[in-house]
Design goal:
Number of helices: 13
Strand content: under 5%
Helix content: over 70%
Distance between the termini: 49 Å
Protein backbone atom coordinates (compact mmCIF):
# COMPACT_ATOMS: atom_id res chain seq x y z
CA UNK A 1 0.00 0.00 0.00
CA UNK A 2 2.82 2.41 0.85
CA UNK A 3 4.46 1.66 -2.50
CA UNK A 4 1.21 2.48 -4.33
CA UNK A 5 0.88 5.76 -2.45
CA UNK A 6 4.44 6.72 -3.37
CA UNK A 7 3.75 5.84 -7.01
CA UNK A 8 0.58 7.93 -6.93
CA UNK A 9 2.45 10.90 -5.47
CA UNK A 10 5.19 10.56 -8.11
CA UNK A 11 2.60 10.40 -10.91
CA UNK A 12 0.80 13.42 -9.50
CA UNK A 13 4.02 15.40 -9.22
CA UNK A 14 4.95 14.54 -12.82
CA UNK A 15 1.52 15.55 -14.08
CA UNK A 16 1.60 18.83 -12.14
CA UNK A 17 5.07 19.70 -13.48
CA UNK A 18 3.97 18.95 -17.06
CA UNK A 19 0.88 21.13 -16.62
CA UNK A 20 2.86 23.98 -15.04
CA UNK A 21 5.60 23.90 -17.70
CA UNK A 22 3.66 26.39 -19.82
CA UNK A 23 4.77 29.11 -17.39
CA UNK A 24 8.26 28.83 -18.92
CA UNK A 25 7.01 30.32 -22.18
CA UNK A 26 8.77 27.66 -24.27
CA UNK A 27 6.72 26.31 -27.19
CA UNK A 28 7.56 22.70 -26.29
CA UNK A 29 5.92 23.19 -22.91
CA UNK A 30 2.50 23.30 -24.60
CA UNK A 31 3.01 19.71 -25.76
CA UNK A 32 3.97 18.67 -22.22
CA UNK A 33 0.85 20.34 -20.81
CA UNK A 34 -1.41 18.61 -23.35
CA UNK A 35 -0.08 15.22 -22.25
CA UNK A 36 -0.20 15.94 -18.51
CA UNK A 37 -2.91 13.27 -17.96
CA UNK A 38 -0.57 10.46 -19.09
CA UNK A 39 1.21 9.89 -15.71
CA UNK A 40 -2.11 9.79 -13.85
CA UNK A 41 -3.62 7.50 -16.47
CA UNK A 42 -0.67 5.12 -16.25
CA UNK A 43 -0.94 5.08 -12.45
CA UNK A 44 -4.68 4.45 -12.58
CA UNK A 45 -4.53 1.72 -15.24
CA UNK A 46 -1.56 -0.04 -13.66
CA UNK A 47 -2.18 0.28 -9.91
CA UNK A 48 -5.89 0.91 -9.74
CA UNK A 49 -8.41 3.72 -9.47
CA UNK A 50 -7.41 4.72 -5.94
CA UNK A 51 -3.90 5.40 -7.16
CA UNK A 52 -5.25 7.82 -9.78
CA UNK A 53 -7.42 9.54 -7.15
CA UNK A 54 -4.49 10.05 -4.77
CA UNK A 55 -2.22 11.24 -7.58
CA UNK A 56 -4.86 13.64 -8.92
CA UNK A 57 -5.53 15.16 -5.50
CA UNK A 58 -1.82 15.57 -4.80
CA UNK A 59 -1.20 17.14 -8.22
CA UNK A 60 -4.12 19.54 -7.77
CA UNK A 61 -2.76 20.54 -4.35
CA UNK A 62 0.67 21.17 -5.89
CA UNK A 63 -0.81 23.41 -8.60
CA UNK A 64 -2.86 25.24 -5.97
CA UNK A 65 0.18 25.81 -3.76
CA UNK A 66 2.40 26.96 -6.63
CA UNK A 67 -0.07 29.14 -8.56
CA UNK A 68 -3.70 29.95 -7.79
CA UNK A 69 -7.12 28.46 -7.19
CA UNK A 70 -8.12 29.19 -10.80
CA UNK A 71 -5.22 27.17 -12.22
CA UNK A 72 -5.85 24.36 -9.75
CA UNK A 73 -9.49 24.31 -10.83
CA UNK A 74 -8.46 24.14 -14.49
CA UNK A 75 -6.04 21.31 -13.71
CA UNK A 76 -8.63 19.35 -11.77
CA UNK A 77 -11.27 19.66 -14.50
CA UNK A 78 -9.08 19.22 -17.58
CA UNK A 79 -6.43 16.76 -16.30
CA UNK A 80 -7.13 14.99 -12.99
CA UNK A 81 -10.83 14.15 -13.38
CA UNK A 82 -10.57 12.95 -17.02
CA UNK A 83 -7.53 10.81 -16.14
CA UNK A 84 -9.33 9.18 -13.23
CA UNK A 85 -12.58 8.54 -15.11
CA UNK A 86 -10.97 7.26 -18.32
CA UNK A 87 -8.67 5.00 -16.31
CA UNK A 88 -11.75 3.69 -14.50
CA UNK A 89 -13.47 2.94 -17.83
CA UNK A 90 -10.42 1.10 -19.17
CA UNK A 91 -10.48 -1.21 -16.14
CA UNK A 92 -14.26 -1.62 -16.24
CA UNK A 93 -15.36 -5.19 -16.96
CA UNK A 94 -17.94 -7.74 -15.98
CA UNK A 95 -17.90 -11.51 -15.77
CA UNK A 96 -20.16 -13.22 -18.28
CA UNK A 97 -20.73 -16.61 -19.83
CA UNK A 98 -20.22 -17.34 -23.51
CA UNK A 99 -22.38 -19.52 -25.79
CA UNK A 100 -20.13 -22.51 -25.09
CA UNK A 101 -20.59 -22.12 -21.34
CA UNK A 102 -17.12 -20.70 -20.71
CA UNK A 103 -16.73 -17.80 -18.30
CA UNK A 104 -14.85 -14.73 -19.46
CA UNK A 105 -14.57 -11.01 -18.72
CA UNK A 106 -16.41 -8.59 -21.00
CA UNK A 107 -14.38 -5.39 -20.99
CA UNK A 108 -15.76 -1.92 -21.60
CA UNK A 109 -15.66 -1.42 -25.40
CA UNK A 110 -13.09 0.91 -26.94
CA UNK A 111 -15.83 2.68 -28.92
CA UNK A 112 -17.68 3.59 -25.73
CA UNK A 113 -14.43 4.95 -24.26
CA UNK A 114 -13.98 7.06 -27.43
CA UNK A 115 -17.49 8.46 -26.96
CA UNK A 116 -16.66 9.36 -23.36
CA UNK A 117 -13.48 11.07 -24.60
CA UNK A 118 -15.57 13.24 -26.94
CA UNK A 119 -18.04 14.06 -24.15
CA UNK A 120 -15.26 14.96 -21.71
CA UNK A 121 -13.51 17.12 -24.32
CA UNK A 122 -16.75 18.98 -25.03
CA UNK A 123 -17.35 19.57 -21.31
CA UNK A 124 -13.81 20.87 -20.82
CA UNK A 125 -14.09 23.32 -23.71
CA UNK A 126 -17.56 24.40 -22.63
CA UNK A 127 -16.14 25.13 -19.16
CA UNK A 128 -13.20 27.01 -20.67
CA UNK A 129 -15.42 29.28 -22.79
CA UNK A 130 -17.74 30.00 -19.88
CA UNK A 131 -21.45 30.61 -19.68
CA UNK A 132 -21.39 34.14 -21.15
CA UNK A 133 -20.89 33.53 -24.88
CA UNK A 134 -20.89 37.24 -25.75
CA UNK A 135 -18.18 38.15 -23.24
CA UNK A 136 -16.10 35.15 -24.28
CA UNK A 137 -16.33 36.05 -27.97
CA UNK A 138 -15.39 39.65 -27.25
CA UNK A 139 -12.33 38.69 -25.20
CA UNK A 140 -11.24 36.18 -27.83
CA UNK A 141 -11.75 38.80 -30.55
CA UNK A 142 -9.53 41.28 -28.68
CA UNK A 143 -6.83 38.61 -28.35
CA UNK A 144 -6.98 37.92 -32.11
CA UNK A 145 -6.78 41.64 -32.84
CA UNK A 146 -3.57 41.87 -30.80
CA UNK A 147 -2.14 38.85 -32.61
CA UNK A 148 -2.97 40.29 -36.04
CA UNK A 149 -1.55 43.66 -35.00
CA UNK A 150 1.79 42.01 -34.18
CA UNK A 151 1.98 39.61 -37.13
CA UNK A 152 0.25 41.74 -39.72
CA UNK A 153 -2.72 40.67 -41.83
CA UNK A 154 -2.37 39.72 -45.51
CA UNK A 155 -3.13 42.43 -48.04
CA UNK A 156 -6.66 42.59 -49.36
CA UNK A 157 -8.16 40.70 -46.41
CA UNK A 158 -11.30 42.02 -44.76
CA UNK A 159 -10.07 42.11 -41.15
CA UNK A 160 -13.50 42.36 -39.41
CA UNK A 161 -14.88 39.49 -41.46
CA UNK A 162 -11.76 37.41 -40.80
CA UNK A 163 -12.07 38.05 -37.07
CA UNK A 164 -15.75 37.06 -37.12
CA UNK A 165 -14.86 33.80 -38.88
CA UNK A 166 -12.02 32.99 -36.44
CA UNK A 167 -14.18 33.76 -33.41
CA UNK A 168 -16.92 31.50 -34.79
CA UNK A 169 -14.54 28.61 -35.57
CA UNK A 170 -12.33 28.82 -32.47
CA UNK A 171 -14.51 26.78 -30.04
CA UNK A 172 -14.99 24.01 -32.62
CA UNK A 173 -11.30 23.87 -33.49
CA UNK A 174 -10.30 23.69 -29.83
CA UNK A 175 -12.88 20.95 -29.21
CA UNK A 176 -11.46 18.94 -32.11
CA UNK A 177 -7.91 19.32 -30.80
CA UNK A 178 -8.94 18.41 -27.24
CA UNK A 179 -10.77 15.26 -28.38
CA UNK A 180 -7.77 14.12 -30.43
CA UNK A 181 -5.29 14.88 -27.63
CA UNK A 182 -7.37 13.07 -25.01
CA UNK A 183 -7.61 10.02 -27.26
CA UNK A 184 -3.83 10.09 -27.75
CA UNK A 185 -3.36 10.35 -23.97
CA UNK A 186 -5.43 7.22 -23.42
CA UNK A 187 -3.66 5.23 -26.17
CA UNK A 188 -0.19 6.27 -24.99
CA UNK A 189 -0.93 5.49 -21.34
CA UNK A 190 -2.49 2.12 -22.19
CA UNK A 191 0.43 1.25 -24.47
CA UNK A 192 2.96 2.13 -21.77
CA UNK A 193 1.05 -0.10 -19.35
CA UNK A 194 0.86 -2.92 -21.91
CA UNK A 195 4.61 -2.74 -22.60
CA UNK A 196 5.26 -3.02 -18.86
CA UNK A 197 3.11 -6.17 -18.81
CA UNK A 198 0.68 -4.76 -16.22
CA UNK A 199 -2.32 -4.05 -18.48
CA UNK A 200 -5.20 -5.97 -16.87
CA UNK A 201 -7.30 -6.27 -20.04
CA UNK A 202 -6.32 -7.59 -23.47
CA UNK A 203 -5.21 -4.95 -25.95
CA UNK A 204 -8.23 -4.13 -28.17
CA UNK A 205 -8.12 -4.08 -31.96
CA UNK A 206 -8.30 -0.33 -32.46
CA UNK A 207 -9.25 -0.74 -36.12
CA UNK A 208 -12.50 -2.36 -34.92
CA UNK A 209 -13.44 0.64 -32.76
CA UNK A 210 -17.08 1.66 -33.23
CA UNK A 211 -19.09 4.34 -31.52
CA UNK A 212 -22.40 3.28 -29.93
CA UNK A 213 -25.34 3.09 -32.33
CA UNK A 214 -27.26 5.98 -30.72
CA UNK A 215 -24.32 8.37 -31.23
CA UNK A 216 -25.31 9.09 -34.85
CA UNK A 217 -28.89 10.25 -34.16
CA UNK A 218 -27.61 12.18 -31.13
CA UNK A 219 -25.12 13.97 -33.40
CA UNK A 220 -27.87 14.98 -35.85
CA UNK A 221 -30.00 16.23 -32.96
CA UNK A 222 -27.09 18.33 -31.65
CA UNK A 223 -26.37 19.76 -35.12
CA UNK A 224 -29.95 21.08 -35.22
CA UNK A 225 -29.08 23.39 -32.29
CA UNK A 226 -25.80 24.65 -33.82
CA UNK A 227 -27.29 27.47 -35.89
CA UNK A 228 -28.76 29.87 -33.28
CA UNK A 229 -26.49 32.46 -31.71
CA UNK A 230 -25.88 32.61 -27.99
CA UNK A 231 -24.92 30.03 -25.42
CA UNK A 232 -27.07 27.16 -26.78
CA UNK A 233 -25.56 27.45 -30.24
CA UNK A 234 -22.04 27.69 -28.82
CA UNK A 235 -22.44 24.56 -26.67
CA UNK A 236 -24.04 22.66 -29.55
CA UNK A 237 -21.18 23.55 -31.92
CA UNK A 238 -18.62 22.44 -29.34
CA UNK A 239 -20.42 19.11 -28.80
CA UNK A 240 -20.86 18.54 -32.54
CA UNK A 241 -17.18 19.24 -33.23
CA UNK A 242 -16.11 16.77 -30.52
CA UNK A 243 -18.43 14.03 -31.84
CA UNK A 244 -17.37 14.64 -35.45
CA UNK A 245 -13.76 14.30 -34.35
CA UNK A 246 -14.62 10.97 -32.74
CA UNK A 247 -16.13 9.89 -36.06
CA UNK A 248 -12.97 11.05 -37.83
CA UNK A 249 -10.95 8.77 -35.54
CA UNK A 250 -13.27 5.88 -36.37
CA UNK A 251 -12.78 6.84 -40.01
CA UNK A 252 -9.08 6.11 -39.61
CA UNK A 253 -10.06 2.76 -38.07
CA UNK A 254 -12.21 2.06 -41.16
CA UNK A 255 -9.30 2.97 -43.41
CA UNK A 256 -7.01 0.60 -41.52
CA UNK A 257 -9.57 -2.19 -41.93
CA UNK A 258 -10.48 -1.68 -45.59
CA UNK A 259 -6.82 -1.50 -46.67
CA UNK A 260 -5.84 -4.78 -44.98
CA UNK A 261 -5.93 -6.86 -48.21
CA UNK A 262 -3.95 -4.28 -50.22
CA UNK A 263 -0.24 -4.67 -50.87
CA UNK A 264 0.01 -0.89 -51.09
CA UNK A 265 -1.54 -0.49 -47.61
CA UNK A 266 1.52 1.25 -46.06
CA UNK A 267 1.48 3.75 -48.93
CA UNK A 268 -2.20 4.65 -48.47
CA UNK A 269 -1.95 4.88 -44.68
CA UNK A 270 1.29 6.87 -44.85
CA UNK A 271 -0.26 9.26 -47.36
CA UNK A 272 -3.35 9.75 -45.18
CA UNK A 273 -1.31 10.54 -42.07
CA UNK A 274 1.18 12.70 -44.00
CA UNK A 275 -1.62 14.87 -45.38
CA UNK A 276 -2.73 15.51 -41.78
CA UNK A 277 0.57 17.34 -41.23
CA UNK A 278 0.21 19.68 -44.22
CA UNK A 279 -1.71 22.91 -44.71
CA UNK A 280 -4.51 20.99 -46.48
CA UNK A 281 -5.24 18.94 -43.34
CA UNK A 282 -8.99 19.88 -43.36
CA UNK A 283 -9.46 17.80 -46.52
CA UNK A 284 -8.32 14.45 -45.02
CA UNK A 285 -10.16 15.30 -41.78
CA UNK A 286 -13.43 15.80 -43.65
CA UNK A 287 -12.74 12.62 -45.62
CA UNK A 288 -12.23 10.63 -42.40
CA UNK A 289 -15.38 12.14 -40.87
CA UNK A 290 -17.35 11.10 -43.96
CA UNK A 291 -15.80 7.62 -43.83
CA UNK A 292 -16.64 7.25 -40.13
CA UNK A 293 -20.23 8.44 -40.64
CA UNK A 294 -20.66 6.14 -43.65
CA UNK A 295 -19.41 3.19 -41.62
CA UNK A 296 -21.81 4.04 -38.80
CA UNK A 297 -24.71 4.19 -41.24
CA UNK A 298 -23.85 1.33 -43.64
CA UNK A 299 -21.34 -0.84 -41.72
CA UNK A 300 -18.62 -0.54 -44.36
CA UNK A 301 -16.14 -2.66 -42.41
CA UNK A 302 -18.52 -5.62 -42.38
CA UNK A 303 -19.64 -5.19 -45.99
CA UNK A 304 -16.30 -4.49 -47.69
CA UNK A 305 -13.67 -5.47 -45.10
CA UNK A 306 -11.63 -8.66 -45.23
CA UNK A 307 -13.59 -11.77 -44.51
CA UNK A 308 -12.57 -13.71 -41.42
CA UNK A 309 -11.87 -17.40 -42.02
CA UNK A 310 -14.59 -19.78 -40.79
CA UNK A 311 -13.93 -21.45 -37.43
CA UNK A 312 -12.25 -24.84 -37.53
CA UNK A 313 -14.58 -27.80 -36.98
CA UNK A 314 -14.59 -29.16 -33.46
CA UNK A 315 -13.59 -32.84 -33.43
Amino acid sequence: MIAQILIALAAGAASAVMFASTMSGVMMSIVLALFAPVPLLVAGITWGRLCAVIGGLFATACVLAAFSFTRAEIFAISVALPAWWLGHLILLGRATTGPSGQDFVEWYPAGHILLWIAVIAALIIAFAFGTDATATNQSFRRMLERVLAKTGAPDGVDIPRLLDLLVFLAPMMVAMIMTTVLALNVVIAAKITAISGRLMRPWPRLRETKLPVMTLPALFAIIAFCFPDGLIGLLARIAAAALLTAYALTGFAVLHTLTLPLRTRPLWLGLAYALMLTFIWPIPVFAMVALGLADAAFDLRHRFGPRRPPPLPVP
